[in-house]
């Protein structure tokens, strides 16, 4: 049975057995989220929370991606036209918070690319099922943005400072690494997903259906590499973190050298914002993180690095953004402080 919660032809809602199923259906755009899709998912969750016949929610994507993020080109074009889409982010962040507090099982079937906004509609639910086709990343600092959609809450809580590593590098990881880090709750073969979804919809017993199909998948990074990540990304300031990597590189650590080279390509402003965001987020609730991120995004949409990053990555595809300021030490601490200041027109209402 189909449900009509809006979203146009970019998203489908299906009632199957005792499950409410959300299907992201923009395969040509890697299921990137539009404003109407975000609002439609929010309406569906509100309805299904109150519907006793819906015992579980499933979300999946059509094609080779789960969801590659928000529709970043539309955001860029709106901002360049003088209409920064603050409303999109307000509704997206409300949705992220609603998923985190949703009281029924919320099962994300992640079979392909999951980045940015795709993480926001999957990682805050009770079950994150990833297949061997999964490619996870939070690459925002590479486009002059910041790891939003609840990244402050999710990534700050990964053990071994692994979230800070992912945020500052934009590293892409697969199924085993995501499982080991705690980003995935279960690893399942891609070929078993349809059967898994059918059984969950029929029985409502998510854990039993997953127990029959989940696999142990080893991490790609060994213990020594994880220890290095924990060491290099544990300092309490970004400057100390970079200094630690620099020292490691000087001592011949190839991982430190390569990581330092990667970080050097990211927006210095975004790196400062992301570092502070994660340090603060570790002590905040999900709702508090979303309010903090809304403060940041209001300022980020007026920051030149965001538009320069999108221009270089997507519009002109030069892959060579000219960041302003161009170096970490040239960034004014007061400018970073301003990203986190209370909003004069009021905070995000959740």
UniProtKB/TrEMBL annotation:
Catalytic reaction equation(s): 3-hydroxy-2-methylpropanoyl-CoA + H2O = 3-hydroxy-2-methylpropanoate + CoA + H(+)
UniProt KW keywords: Hydrolase
Main EC class the enzyme belongs to: hydrolase
Enzyme Commission number(s): 3.1.2.4
Gene3D superfamilies assigned to the protein according to its UniProt record, in alphabetical order: 2-enoyl-CoA Hydratase, Chain A, domain 1 (3.90.226.10)
Sequence ranges assigned to domain Enoyl-CoA hydratase/isomerase in this UniProt record: 20-340
UniProt-listed CDD domains: crotonase-like
Matching NCBIfam families: PRK05617.1
Full protein name: 3-hydroxyisobutyryl-CoA hydrolase
Species this protein is from: Chelativorans salis
